[in-house]
Amino acid sequence: MTVAYDGTDFFGFQRQPWQRTVQGTLEETLSRITGENVTVTGAGRTDAGVHARGQVIHWETNSPIPLERWPVILDRALPRDLTVLDTEEVPLDFHARKDACWKQYCYTLDTHKIPDVFTRRFRTHLPVLLDIDRMKEAGSHLVGTHDFTSFSSAKSPVTDRVRTLYGCRITEPEDGVVAITVTGNGFLYNMVRIIAGTLVQVGKGELSPAAIPEILEAKDRGRAGKTLPPEGLVMVKVCYTPWKEETSEAGS
Amino acid sequence: MTVAYDGTDFFGFQRQPWQRTVQGTLEETLSRITGENVTVTGAGRTDAGVHARGQVIHWETNSPIPLERWPVILDRALPRDLTVLDTEEVPLDFHARKDACWKQYCYTLDTHKIPDVFTRRFRTHLPVLLDIDRMKEAGSHLVGTHDFTSFSSAKSPVTDRVRTLYGCRITEPEDGVVAITVTGNGFLYNMVRIIAGTLVQVGKGELSPAAIPEILEAKDRGRAGKTLPPEGLVMVKVCYTPWKEETSEAGS
Question: Cβ atoms within 10 A of the Cβ of B82, count?
Answer without folding.
Answer: 23
